[in-house]
Specification:
The chain has a six-stranded mixed β-sheet, sandwiched between helices. The protein starts with a helix and ends in an 8-residue tail after the last helix. The chain has one domain: tt1808, chain A (Alpha-Beta Complex). The protein has four helices and twelve strands, in the order H-E-E-H-E-E-E-E-E-H-E-E-E-E-E-H. Helices cover 24% and strands 27% of the residues.
Amino acid sequence: MGMTIDEFLVANLPEGKSELVRGEVRLTPPAEAPHGRAATNLVVALSIYVKEHRLGWVFGDAVGYELVRFPQTVRIPDASFVRADRIPSDGVRQGLFRFPPDLAVEVLSPSETATLLEEKIRDYATSGTRLIWIVDPMRRTVLTIPADAPVSWLAEGNTLDGGTVIPGFSFPVAEVFEGIARDI
């Protein structure tokens, strides 16, 4: 048997991002600057909109979600959103969220394989995440995977929107990549 979630939460792990996937610790190297810039651009834009409209909370990559449909699995998206009605009225408590985010954002890194990415997408979708954005800083594209609409690829001339998950939110795809050199 692999590691439990309780063991994972107190484990002394090397620097970098770590997730627990079916009892197996998965470590990734620290994010490179383009990865961090794209994630930050989205977190800032989402946070401003979500707070202004009192829709819920936006998180960076420091919040874990226990995906209870999969034993001993904790995913940590690069950015995420949780609707207000899913957050306790008196605030969050110690521990992980024991549900999937409504929006999960994953920014591709050079170390990410297609197999690992596909597994993450499947985990989020199967667990009930209603919208997934896959951000590719190298190609300057965003893949949107909504639970209630067709999948779409967006490029810099397009606008990213929150669909039914974050109603009214829109953000130019070009601004996701603001501050990232074109020759990465």
